[in-house]
Task: structure prediction
Amino acid sequence: MKNQKIITKTSKNLSLILRHNPAVIGLTLDENGWADVKELIAKFSARRFKMTRASLEEVVATNNKKRFSFNEDKTKIRANQGHSISVDLEFEAQAPPSTLFHGTVERFLTSIFTEGLIKGSRQHVHLSADLKTAQNVGSRRGNPIILKVNSLLASQEGIEFYLSDNGVWLSDHVPVKYLERL
Ligand code: HQG
Result:
């Protein structure tokens, strides 16, 4: 259990560092969001708490949302999605399932049904292929409201969708006409 606590704490710190603020430990990411693993371990251990390659590998392997990935030779690591800093994750647009879902809360609905789904501080709007994930995402903020996205029509009409390495569907903006409250 103690180990699990450290893993969770490490994961939360990594989300902050690799998605939002690498400078907090004096790190820089390359243009594609990659951090050098040796440098990350050294700088993380110096400013946070002791991190080893083994503990980092465990975080990557066991993370419930597969938030992080190594490159092929495991010299670099990055977050798969969720960034607020500008990085190019090299996503290629691809055909989405005909329906996608977005979990939100009541207080955002007026604005969402005025301007569509916007990315806010993140680099993309986050969508899911399954209802359950959208429910969980909405629940982070209160009683979840689920929006159904007519992604088939949207993609036919030129809206682009991307799939992150950890299975999150992303888009730049989803206009109101493709949204329906469930
Ligand atoms: C809302 C977590 C007003 C949107 C989750 C959401 C997810 C609008 C909030 C991932 C709006 C943005 C992303 C508009 C959208 N007016 N509000 N026009 N358009 N919104 O956190 O989707 O644990 O950036 O409904 O599980 O909640 O970090 O996005 O409520 O997968 O890996 O603006 O973050 O994953 O909030 O969550 P967020 P999200 P991690």
The first strand starts at residue 35 and ends at 36. Helices lie at 2-20, 37-47, 53-62, 109-115, 131-139, 151-156. The chain has a mean pLDDT of 96.
